[in-house]
Amino acid sequence: MSPDEFRRHGRAVVDWIADYWEGLQHLPVTPGREPGATAALLPDTAPETGEPFDDLLADMDRVVVPGTVHWQHPGFLGYFPMTTSGPAVLAELLAAGLNTQGMLWSTSPAAAEIEARVSDWLAELMDLPESFRGNGVIQDTASTGVLLALIAARTRAERDGAGPYVVYTSEDGNACITKAARVLGIPDAHLRRVPVAAWTRAMDPADLAARIGADRAAGLTPLAVVATVGTTATTAVDPLDAIGVICREQGVWLHVDAAYAGVAAICPEMRWIHRGLDQADSYSTNPHKWLLTGLECSLTYFADPAPLHQAMRVTAAYLHDRGEARIDYQDWQIPLGKRFRALKLWFVLRAYGREGLQRHLREGIACAEELASWIEADERFELAAPHPFGLVCFRHRAGDGAGRELLARVNADRRLFLTSTESDGRFLLRIAAGGTATTSESLKAAWQRISQTADQVTTAADP
Ligand code: PLP
After folding, report:
1. Which atom of ligand 1 is nearest to the CA of 258?
2. How many whole angstroms from 212 Cα to the centroid of ligand 1?
3. Residue 254: phi, psi to the nearest 5?
4. Which end of the chain has the least Cβ crowding within 10 Å, N or C?
5. What CATH number should be reported for the domain whose range is 93-348?
6. Which pTM value belongs to this model?
7. CA quadruple 353, 359, 364, 368: dihedral, nearest 10
8. Measured in angstroms, how far is the CA atom of residue 366 from the centroid of ligand 1?
9. What digits encode the pLDDT tens for the residues 348-357?
10. Which cofactors is this protein said to need (predicted)?
11. Ligand 1 atom nearest to 288, measured from its CA
């Protein structure tokens, strides 16, 4: 494709995206296709000769859109929002055009220095502890952040010739913690799921301390605690201050997983979520969830990155141009290759500014508060957990069967998409506000639809 052709097609692509965003509300949120239906539209083999770009773009509407779950749709209220924005998407395009490889400072000096700077900008915006300043890195996901934290923890622990290792998280700690532990050869049996309090679903620190003590007495090595700020199930906030004291006393690494909720600390009134974070060894949060940055952009900060570097730094004749005074990002991550993800974070932070980001986050929180008030006012439902962020969890008072039927009916209609979770063995419906296009009006319309659908539920009340 010549630069002139690129210019022409590039404009068409940008128009396509703008049209998609503009018309999104008129599409069903979820696809009606059966498994295999998209693959059936594709030839068995790649084409022998090149096809015109116009045909490729036309297949976005024919092949891709009808088989897509539209995460940017105002009716997408499941999981957590994966927000994006114009500045983020355009920066992705620019980064793809540059297509740099940032494994070393010398292979991409501007990318390295922008990443270091915007990691610090975000730390300042969120008022993260001083120990994390200058020590942030952008990864693909929070799953990688947890894995790197455990790798660093093990490297630190190995200095004392320790093992076998045990990792601790709450009952509601994310599934990626299980994966990270397995990758390190820590079996599921050595991942302790600490009980949580009934309503807040926050980790019980006394139980954590007792388990750490018992494991040590049994000859095991408590390696790390992964505490959560904003659990995936209900956005519970673990008590970092009490957990931090235990970790310090016991010499156990503390990683704080704030994948979804951490960015809320950009608003000063939400900073309570990080009380005690100054005792943590590492911390992750995902601007790609709530901060308009688009997948993938996950920040991980280390209070002392030395054990991470010890584990990750490799040398080879072809990796020659290193410098002690510079950041070589291959020391901060598992792969050698590194995309220029910092560009989109830089664009988003500049395009919105502190004020714009706060407005966006506060809108999500206000939407959740409004929604919770409608749920509380409806005698068929009850709130199931606190809702400090953009997520509201609730139950059907008639029981789990009625809740499940309601979810199935709402999602079958395809104009909304909700997900569920379980708490104490009970079924909970989740509604996640804060999405790119979710507004107070769209949420009101969604609640009306859910409420009307609840009128059709036929499952008998639990005995
Ligand atoms: N941790 C928490 C608390 C999450 O909510 C999630 C995803 O929703 C994750 C970790 C996994 O995040 P990622 O997809 O970035 O690996």
Report:
1. 3
2. 25
3. -115, 115
4. C
5. 3.40.640.10
6. 0.97
7. 150
8. 23
9. 999 999 999 9
10. pyridoxal 5'-phosphate
11. 15
